[in-house]
Amino acid sequence: MKYALIGCGRIAPNHIAAAIANKLLIAAVCDIVPENMEKVLEPLTEKEKVNVCRYTDYKELLKKEKPTLVAIATESGKHAKIALDCIEEGCNVIIEKPIALSIEDADAIIKKAKEKGVMVCANHQNRFNKSVQKIRSAIEEGRFGKLLYGTAHIRWNRGENYYSQAPWRGTWEQDGGALMNQCIHNIDLLRWMMGSDITEVFAYTDNLKHDYIEAEDLGMALVKFSNGSYGIIEGTTDIYPKNLEETLYIFGDKGTIKAGGKSVNVIEEWSFADGIDDPEYVKSNFHENPPNVYGYGHTPLYADVIESISSEREPYITGEDGKRALELVLAIYKSAATGKPVKMPLKKCSTLDFKGRFDR
Prior knowledge:
eight-stranded mixed β-sheet
């Protein structure tokens, strides 16, 4: 299957590694900085590198290479435009999180993909963590009984050096803040586990110590799900002196779990009234220790997308899933900006609606 990668920044090596592991034909890469392309291709042999075409214009890549599958890993604000152009050319797409920065753009991606008959996968790779898959199976089997509430905590650190490496980070036009960039994976997991449909969100956001970025470095939210359960979200990049934890809790009247580690990849608590499995066995066998917060999920995500294209079924993580994660972050932004609860679903909303929110 002919593959191309558009955007060769911080997350791009994970995409190339996943493409290699899944034996994709890496036909082309694209970045406006040529050196970035060479760095991302380092894992390939010299012979393989020669066969990869380099482009600084993704539209030229699409016209000349006509890839079957394209991964989009540029700055967030460009995801939607590039995705729509890829879909127009008949390409299936994997879109790094967030799928877009507005509800309208997410809807446009989903609509055009259906019209063109191509697959859209939102790159929420943590859904493929061993720990997360085990928790999801317990949800689907009804082992929690009545879901009561769940919490997502993302207690990380990002300093000025991180933002200076890429000026788009922390801007309303191209990124958003901690919730949209660093926390959206765990926000996605919370919504997915607790039932997806939401009736109302109430939140606070602030910029407490990153006065060199436009958006928030702290967000706290209460979420009311349609099934009567609740969610609590706490996300920040203010933790001293480094990343502390990313945790997910789910509480039901017949079950309790806690997942933690670098990217929700370790089960730390596993307790169910049915007693059908040994908690210590689960904790030791559904445990991963990835080298960074990106985890190991890109490779199985790619495998699923490839299979979905071949069998003409939806991928495990769809464009609609990407929209749901985006929608929840935007609802948090809107509630915090207005000081009022926000009813769901959101019909229209964009990060640009909050430009100037923390201007000093």
